[in-house]
Amino acid sequence: MTSERTRTRLIQRLRDEGIRDERVLAAIGRVPRHLFIDEALASRAYEDTALPIGFGQTISQPFIVATMTQALLDGGSLKKVLEVGTGSAYQTAVLAGLVTEVYSVERLAPLFQLAHKRVRQLGCRNVRLRLGDGTQGWPEHAPYDGILVTAAPPEIPQALLEQLNLGGRLVIPVGEAGMQQLQLVVRTEKGFTCERLEPVSFVPLVPGQA
Ligand code: SAH
Questions:
Q1: Is 163 near ligand 1, meaning CB less than 6 Å away?
Q2: Pocket lining: 106 vs ligand 1, CB cutoff 6 Å
Q3: Residue 202 reports pLDDT greater than 90
Q4: Measured at the alpha carbon of residue 173, what is the angle toward residues 170 and 179, in degrees to the nearest 5?
């Protein structure tokens, strides 16, 4: 079966599972997920499952990518978005099709280099990648209208809260393995509001340099 047909099937499945934002579904439909994983696993690229990308890391499950992106956008449009945990750059590429500018930080050099190559090959001109510790955010480009974190810290890093614009939205898995919750934090005039979205399972957000 062609990747386009299996991708269409994946989109229908995400719709059936409750993803409502058609822009998010369309953006996922445009990104060839098989190009973000090892060739040996490419035949499984359009299953709704996380897959290994080496170095103990995983490419997120499409349903989770869709859920997080939908929560980040909240039906609106965002200009500047920071992603922490580039990994394969799949989520990065999905975001690139939906917002004006994407900044993404990855801690592991080999994944960063591969992500860089992919983003260039796919011609995502609105994406900038950085090798470093994403628990510190990327202060030079702050504030962000949205921040999406794809690895789980035990607590929300203070730097990420500080780099959020007024009205800005942070989507982040929080907690230890086996008991993580996806949380949505919104910066308001008075401070921050926090909502728990659903239980999730992410690799840990590891602070400091690799
Ligand atoms: N969105 C990615 C998820 C990759 S897994 C994808 O779908 O492919 C999470 C990634 O976060 C891993 O690549 C891991 O190396 C990275 N990571 C962990 N701690 C980090 C940190 N402190 N700063 C930046 N990236 C980090």
A1: no
A2: yes
A3: yes
A4: 150
